[in-house]
Amino acid sequence: MRVEEAPAANEVMPAALVEPVLEEGQVTDPDCDDWVKLEANFMTGRQYMVDGVTVDVYDDGMGQEFDFSSERRVCKVYVKGGPDTNVYTYDPGVFEDEGLHAPFNPGSEKWYDLSNIIFCFCPDEPVVEIDLSIVKEADVETVLPGGLINYTITVCNESTTTCEDVELVDDFDEDAVTVSNISDGGFNANGEIHWPAFDLDPEECRTFTYTAEVGEDVDPGYEVCNVATATCEGIHFSDDACVLVVAPPEVVPGLEVEKSANKEIAAPGETADYTIVVTSPSEEDAEDVLVTDDYDERFVDIVAGSITGGGAVVNGTIVWTIDVPAGESVTLMYRARVKDDVVGGTIIRNIVTVEDVSDFVDVRVVVPVTPAVREEFVPAEPFLPFTGGEAMLLGLAVLASAGAGAALRKRARTTRDRDAA
Predict the structure, then answer these.
(1) Residues linked to residue 66 through DSSP beta bridges, in sequence order
(2) Are 393 and 290 in contact (CB under 8 A)?
(3) Beta pairing, strands 235-245 & 142-143
(4) Alpha carbon of 94 to those of 12, 13, 116, 121, 279: distances in Å?
(5) What is the pLDDT of residue 358?
(6) How many other CB atoms sit within 10 Å of the CB of residue 267?
(7) CA-CA distance, 242 to 370, in Å (whole number)?
(8) Mean pLDDT over residues 163-192, rounded?
């Protein structure tokens, strides 16, 4: 779906947008390739038209002046009056202007009366066709009250030129859903998700995602429809995705399932242990019961060796085939680790299904804040005076050291005396 906005008209000022340049003589060969000449016995208060150009003549006390409007962009206007010509040049071109006049007449001290007017049209600029494609998809076609819908929006530039400052807005049904896990810096503003403007080169695509949780009070049969719109240079491109809310399935007689987790919140890198209990309260055994658990592989990895009961991972789902004896229960367990790059506030919903019976557990991701560690100053132990026993031992050590020194000195003197003799 595409809607084009008409370009806004140039603002008209109380005087001509540009100052005229006096050109001597009458211009017969204007400096442009595409032009039209309006020549008449111009009278004040009259309107004149030629080739899509409308001219209104009036007198504000200084002689004849005129305003013009044109269906095509005008780049230059030659206004002949008296012996010379006033030339008005517009860059860029305009569609209208006012207060134009012929050269000044020094005799009357007013403008010369209009003789003829030449309008030069701007060269046609190459038309660049803006063509964006936008595709919005939901990961499910039906959803239970309280269920989750994951949306993906893909915007591609199929033009031959870069599309700058593309605006992407998603109008979701805020009466039926709440949104979370918005990618790429998008934010919720009163029922609309806005993403920061971005550029798209030719043939470049960008993908955006978010999650919507259907309200528990939404009635079955209600259709949740959200519309995404990408805008480039005033041209809008839209796509929608609708999901039908359905009633919870009837419980299959004889089989019940309950799922639980050992925690309600977890940080990136932490693990959560899940327990599934399948019960057959009937009087007959349930054989070859298929149990599937969608653990949402976007946000968690299954810890190797943690799956009990012979289950195996198949395309992001744990699959078991079990027998449940009559009147008994079978317990299945596994451990999941939250991926390191999961952002805070993410809701990880794991859904177990046993035939047509299902149950789910939500774990919310919380990024912990690590407090700064303060280093405490530990003073050195103070010097304590010696006890009596310590003093005596220290004194004996000093005497022993002194005695050893004296003996060594005496021995040295004896050796010198013997050598002298």
Answers:
(1) 57, 100
(2) no
(3) parallel
(4) 10, 12, 20, 9, 79
(5) 81
(6) 13
(7) 42
(8) 94
